[in-house]
Amino acid sequence: MIRWLVGLIGLSLAATQALAADPALIGVGYLGLAGTRSTLSLVEQPAENDGLAGARLAIEDNNTTGKFLNQRFTLEERRIKEGEDAVRAATDLAARNGFIIADLPADALLKVADSLRERGTLLFNAGAIDERLREADCRSNVVHTAPTRAMLADALGQYLVWKQWKRWLLVVGSHDEDKLFADALRRAATRFGAKIVQERTFEDTGGARRTDSGVTLIQRQMPVFTQQAPAYDVLVAADESEVFAAYLPYRTWDPRPVAGSAGLVPRSWDAAQDQWGAIQMQNRFIKLNSRRMTALDMQAWTAVRMIGEATSRTNSGDVRKVSDFIKGPDFSVAAFKGTKLTLRDWNLQLRQPILLVDGRMVVSVSPQEGFLHQVSELDTLGYDRPESKCKLK
Amino acid sequence: MQAEVRTRMLWRVGLLSGLALAAAPAHAFIAYISNEKGNTVSVIDTESWTVTKTIKVGQRPRGIEFTRDGKFVMVAVGDDDTIQVIDAKTQSVVDSLPSGPDPELFAQDAAGKILYVANENDNTVTVIDLEKRARIGDIQVGVEPEGMTISPDGKTLINTSETTNMAHFIDTDSRQIVANVLVDARPRFAEFRHDSSELWVSSEIGGTVSIIDPKKHEVTGKVTFEIPGLRKEAIQPVGIGMTKDDKTAFIALGPANRVAVVDTATRKVTKYLLVGQRVWHMAFTPDEKYLLTTNGVSNDVSVIDVAAQKVIKTIQVGELPWGVTIAP
What we know:
Order of helices and strands of chain A: HEHEHEHEEHEHEHEEEHHHEEEEEE
Number of strands of chain A: 16
Largest interface: A-B, 30 and 30 residues
Helix content of chain A: 25-40%
Keywords (chain A): Amino-acid transport, Signal, Transport
Protein name (chain B): YVTN family beta-propeller repeat protein
Low-confidence stretches of chain A: 1-19
Strand order of the largest sheet of chain B: 3-2-1-28
Radius of gyration of chain A: 22 Å
CATH class of chain B: Mainly Beta
CATH superfamily of chain B: YVTN repeat-like/Quinoprotein amine dehydrogenase
CATH architecture of chain B: 7 Propeller
CATH superfamily of the largest domain in chain A: Response regulator
Largest sheet of chain B: 4 strands, antiparallel
Oligomer: heterodimer
Family (chain A): Belongs to the leucine-binding protein family.
Shape of chain A: globular
Pfam family, one (chain B): YNCE
Keywords (chain B): Signal
Strand content of chain A: 15-25%
CATH topology of the largest domain in chain A: Rossmann fold
């Protein structure tokens, strides 16, 4: 409160001339699903404002900058309940906001994107990691700050190969997303010269994620499930559905490290990231939201900061002008990852380093040294321009 | 053994005094290096080019500067939310200043009475009366204030904010922002030409140095960098050093492991000097014969012969050396 007051006084003193005109208002909407998903690990259970909290911090950051440029940013949240129409919610939000940060499943996102096309609203996909949204189903009004499955898998694959852990035992869950992540991991193995020595499927037979005597059972199940594997260096798990991967570390039959959906995990961001000035942002985030910052928070923060970066560079709040600048060749944004982030112009995916984290520390950051590219080393992660099926319309 | 060392030393003293007759007297200077991870300050003697003392300080020491009278060294220890004061005579911490949270870089006025501190966590610049050791004001600036410098006439304080991407021009009398100039991403360091005609601001993520006309508050040009065989993202300009005649600027390029030598008239790089890894900041010896750079990742300091534009020495210091200041 006091800080706010001091800021207000500073503002009125500093920029009296500049503030003669009304500030340019830049409305940002946040569209997500109601409710949270359930994780195996209690400490990884997302907060209700997962994602939104990052957008909120970026709005604060943008407004601090905005007071020097006479720009004001607002954030409006909208959660879609089960059975509710995403398009209707999005249309309502778009009436007041030229930009929308979306954390939606792929199908809902596409419907929303197509419905807002004529209106000129720019959407930021902060949540969905599906490849198809950047490939066959790409849209010219959707910018992606979330990384893709292939980017995540490649980031992990480069590190495992650098580490000389080239023989992978791949364990895949039985849900569709698990299979998609497994596809991305297989592709990474082929690209970087790792070998999948065997694949196993972990069937989801239902059951509760929380039980009173769960550990005893898991301790017996996991060694049995992983026994009699051919010689391997690392177990790579594809379990986006949170059914089994977190149970694997320390319980495999052979003493081997686990990576993928548990153990060493590729993520766009982590609460432990403190390099490249990130500590300042982590501190700001904790102060504002009373919890630590997740990857989804970061993806939303980056989206809102991209809008702020473009409004300050163009000195404009005009949605068209700002959108064009974001998609243009001169755009870049700093996001505490040691390098500037830019958009792949062929599909509007944000290029970004991927962190490899173990839940407590940042173990490494990909791209790894030695993985070269003629344009940007960040394009060694994910589908590159020549392979892309995207035709932006 | 001991006798031999002594003989050699005597010989060196003899050589030096001989030299002194021939050329200008070669002064020994004392350089202080802040080691960000080591929580220490290394003291370097510029005659022997050795570390003569390592001083334990608070957590995460970064910005470091001598007081104008040369009696004390101030070092910002960000994670302890204070600036510690080292007595240059006893080479030990004797005091601390109420800097505000997470101080990183700071600037003093010409008289050495007022200290301006960038507080990264708070979006403020804190004003400190050095004699009274008291905080006398705050100035609200952009997100993550970092670079700090004062114009040669003392009238304008410059602060750069890393996420807002601006150089804020602050009137030192009224302590109010008079202008904001947008520069490239993550501006980290600001340096005036000695003749006040230009302000140079380095942008770490943008990979450029913006040259600003301080009267018109406009960017009039940019220094860009290109190193064959090195990816563009590795070029991250941070520290800037300008010779007294304003003819040559030295710019530390971070993970590019090089210092660029820039002709200030053409604003073009004339040479890249290979130094240690992740070069941060730099300081000239008062006679301007040498330029010392701190190399964060290789844990050393490179010594550049300014006239020859050559790296002549490397000195191992503490963990992650960051800032450097040399006794006036």
